[in-house]
Amino acid sequence: MSVGRQSLAVLDLEGVLTPEIWIAVAERTGLDSLRRTTRDEPDIDALFSGRIEALDAAGIKLDAILEVIEGMTPLEGAVDFLGELRSRLPVLVLSDTFEQFGRPLTAKLGEPAMLCHRLIEQDGRLAGYRLRIANQKQRAVEAFQSLNYRVVAVGDSYNDVTMLTQADAGVLFRASAKVASEHPQFPSCDAYRDLLAIIDEWIAAA
Amino acid sequence: MSVGRQSLAVLDLEGVLTPEIWIAVAERTGLDSLRRTTRDEPDIDALFSGRIEALDAAGIKLDAILEVIEGMTPLEGAVDFLGELRSRLPVLVLSDTFEQFGRPLTAKLGEPAMLCHRLIEQDGRLAGYRLRIANQKQRAVEAFQSLNYRVVAVGDSYNDVTMLTQADAGVLFRASAKVASEHPQFPSCDAYRDLLAIIDEWIAAA
């Protein structure tokens, strides 16, 4: 007899399914200031503004960044993991990246729907960005809960904590030792097979 | 310069991306009472209860129905259309079918996230169903709008009208002449290339 509530999964992109975009860009541009991520800086606005100003000051255009991103591939095993997960329940990606940056990567992941932000481009320059909505990951989880879904959220870093807390179940995947130790309330794992096992157990408990 | 609001698309499943599941089941079981769809009967509860009672009374089990559904294929051109659309913006399927029925079809469509309902099975029998939430299509559109997305919705029948009305743009696809003439406020088309052109124009107007 199957009468449990319906479940839905939301996943962070960078660190969970793909490498960190900004670290790849830092490696190719040599701009070390781009290496800071949401793992290091919880204030998204400070982080994003700093990155965009650094790139623009160095004269690096959007095309050059997109070329770096198009050369990136999902983490090993991510495509198979996502395929398994999508056969079980609806899956969305919640990312604080920009549409323009995320698209080459979601294409390689089989086009999961991704909710994120948008970069403002002007004549090929990075002119700024527009947060679609503040605290969008937590707000999206709340929205799916209001539609009577129980939600499992998977993330790796500071900007995922409110989403993991809001979700019916939150899981840390390949989090830094610092993030994991500061949030012992979330199960934490480093292998996709372990992540899938945690989610399967949670689905079965509906 | 790209500063418009971010857009998202929601699509009905049956009639827009796949044939009507219940018509296929009616053809294979010979139960003509299953032929009524949301095009004919706007009251979902009456429609669903009638279908489930008719199948159970005829001794038809879930396995037999799933075998019919697994033999179905998406509408010609649907996979390519969905691929094109997903390269442009996040896409979700909003369907009043059941998880169990929809999964063989979403698998053939490349696993778009689908929000729907759930069948209650008991010992292989259809014991009933659970609406996840009343008026779920309209509610989902409202939820994405609350996350600051402008939403385009595509449907073909009565149970899509509240969703199309709520959306920032609603489009009828292969609707019956009756549905289309009763809702002249929605653009209406029958070919995927025309549907894509309507959505492209709407995206560009953001």
Topology:
Two copies of one chain form a homodimer.
Chain A: E1 7-11, H1 21-29, H2 44-57, H3 62-70, H4 78-86, E2 91-98, H5 99-108, E3 114-122, E4 125-130, H6 136-146, E5 150-155, H7 161-166, E6 169-173, H8 177-182, E7 188-189, H9 192-204
Parallel strand pairs in A: 1-2, 1-5, 2-3, 5-6, 6-7
Antiparallel strand pairs in A: 3-4
Helix pairs in contact in A: 3-5
Provide structural commentary.
The structure is a homodimer of 206-residue chains. Chain A is globular and about 55 Å long. With 206 residues, chain A is of the alpha/beta class. The two termini of chain A are 12 Å apart. Chain A has 9 helices and 7 strands; from the N terminus they run E-H-H-H-H-E-H-E-E-H-E-H-E-H-E-H. A 7-stranded mixed beta sheet of chain A has the order 4-3-2-1-5-6-7, sandwiched between helices. At the A-B interface, helix 5, strand 3 and helix 6 of A face helix 5, strand 3 and helix 6 of B.
